[in-house]
Amino acid sequence: MRHSSPVSWLVAAAAACAVAGCAAPSHFTKPQSPDRFTACAPAPHCVSSQAAPGSFHYVEPFRFTGSAAVAHRALSQMLRNVQHATVEKDDGNFVHATFQTTIGFVDDVTFVIKSEEHFIDVKSSSRIGFSDLGVNHRRVEGLRKQFEALLQNE
């Protein structure tokens, strides 16, 4: 039986890190201010409505026409109905939820309701890895559709 050398293990570990992105968890932090998120890291595993329009990080905010209270209610209901989502914090205009992926990774999704502007800023980011293969972008667009459907039923 042939045994692998320590160098082979080191090469295999380095290759696995390169593919997976081997990044330390980006622990969730509240927005920089009551209405500004921290910027997405350069890696393509984050989307935000506060990123520069046209950048690969940018997604549209969620829009609403009624009251902020109705929008908050629809947002809360939507998050309660989404599989693998847990609302970690909800203090009125700020909502933080976590989403566990099917393979066990945890992603953070935050929302800031801007009542005067009639929109909700959104940021969705993976905690680890380099690329999320578009998961956060697809998640935000799916949440947007659910949010809009709930608003139509109000």
What's the short story on this structure?
This protein has 154 residues and is α+β, with helices and mostly antiparallel strands. The chain has helices at 6-20, 68-81, 135-152; strands at 46-48, 62-63, 85-90, 94-100, 106-114, 119-126. Helices cover 31% and strands 23% of the residues.
Which terms would index this structure?
alpha+beta; six-stranded antiparallel beta sheet; 3 helices; 154 residues
Helix content: 25-40%
Number of strands: 6
H and E order: HEEHEEEEH
Q: Specify the biggest β-sheet.
A: 6 strands, antiparallel
Number of helices: 3
Which structural class is indicated by helix and strand composition? Answer: alpha+beta
Mean pLDDT figure: 83
Strand percentage lies at 15-25%
- Uncertain segments are 7-27
User: What is the overall silhouette?
Assistant: globular
Separation of the first and last Cα atoms: 68 Å
User: What is the alpha-carbon Rg in Å?
Assistant: 18 Å
